[in-house]
Specification:
The structure is a single chain. This protein folds into two domains: about 5-205, Spore Coat Polysaccharide Biosynthesis Protein SpsA, Chain A; about 210-305, no CATH class. The protein has twelve helices and eleven strands. The chain has helices at about 15-25, 45-55, 70-80, 95-105, 135-140, 155-160, 175-185, 210-230, 235-240, 240-255, 260-270, 285-305, and strands spanning about 5-10, 30-35, 60, 85, 90-95, 115, 120, 125-130, 155, 190, 195-200.
Length: about 300
């Protein structure tokens, strides 16, 4: 079985060599590595040309449309693999990553994708393992517990069936991709082996200036998922409605930290009048729930700040 490793690259000169070397060091032999430069203004392209001297089989190209989804789709069009490894340029694959997941595919060849664990490494070098939740895949997706782009392995057939990555999205691209895949077929494999290292780098994070907008897109994507479930999976929606609403409430509490006005507007639109926070949720303490019952969402958030959380 042939596997394609597709790497979008934008201003990753300090990282790209460390990413490419482990990709070619995979113990699984039937791979190709494709790297797409996405309008880099540093010397990323020059580094890629140097790497091609070292690895003649490396496929490099450019995509002028900005955004990682466009670069990934360009790589998808150039690729030949039956399964796809979308790898961010600052992330690292352990040598057995592909071989390990190919064995899983042999057991479940018709799965939509593999939702896999990863190791998240902070700028300070601290590492934490994040495993996918073996739950209904829509519930896992809703709480960002269905693996991530670089740790997962993707079935080319279903990726092409949904038209690849949505190039219009500025964030929540990964959630959108998985949501559209699950609409086609929600057959997901789970992999608890953390064989991808996801490295944090300050200059590569989404701009904090648009942090509130990012969370709004994150919230709106979850509303889109809920509307689909209500229409096409009504039994699941009704049985898990409390779970989904608790998750939405948790998102709004995060948004309220820096944009209470928007968070309160979304609360009024989607939750007020037909939702009461569950005492079992992990994002609201008992004192907070008392404040919520007394003063409502906005009042509880204001009181939380005044009381020093």
């Amino acid at each position: 079985m042939f596997i394609s490793i597709i790497i979008p690259a934008y201003n990753v000169s300090p990282y790209i060599e460390e990413c490419i070397h482990p990709a070619f060091a995979q113990t699984y032999p039937h791979i190709e590595v494709i790297c797409i430069d996405n309008n880099s203004t540093d010397d990323t392209w020059q580094k890629l040309e140097q790497l091609k001297q070292q690895y003649p089989q490396l496929i490099i190209d450019k995509e002028l449309k900005p955004g990682a989804p466009a670069a990934r789709n360009k790589g998808l069009r150039l690729s030949k693999g039956k399964w796809l490894q979308f790898l961010d340029a600052d992330d690292l694959l352990m040598p057995v990553k592909i071989a390990h997941q190919v064995k899983l595919i042999d057991k479940h060849p018709h799965a939509t994708f593999i939702a896999a664990a990863c190791i998240k490494r902070s700028v300070a070098g601290q590492e934490n393992i994040h495993k996918p939740k073996r739950d209904n895949p829509f519930k896992s997706l809703f709480t960002t517990s269905l693996g991530i782009t670089s740790s997962n392995l993707w079935n080319r057939q279903t990726i092409e069936q949904i038209g690849g990555w949505d190039e219009s999205l500025k964030s929540s691209q990964e959630a959108d991709l998985m949501f559209r895949l699950l609409q086609v077929k929600d057959e997901v494999m789970y992999d608890d082996e953390a064989l991808t290292i996801v490295r944090e780098r300050p200059e590569g994070q989404i701009s904090q200036q648009n942090h509130s907008e990012k969370w709004q897109r994150f919230f709106n994507k979850r509303i889109e998922i809920l509307e689909w479930l209500r229409k096409y999976r009504p039994e699941h929606y009704m049985s898990e409605k409390g779970f989904y609403q608790d998750a939405l409430f948790g998102i709004l509490k995060i948004m309220a930290e820096e944009d209470l006005k928007t968070a309160n507007l979304l609360y009024k639109q989607y939750l007020k009048g037909h939702y009461s926070p569950s005492p079992n949720q992990d994002h609201s303490t008992k004192p907070y729930l008392v404040l919520f019952r007394l003063f409502g969402f906005r009042g509880a958030e204001v009181a939380k700040r005044l009381l020093g959380k």
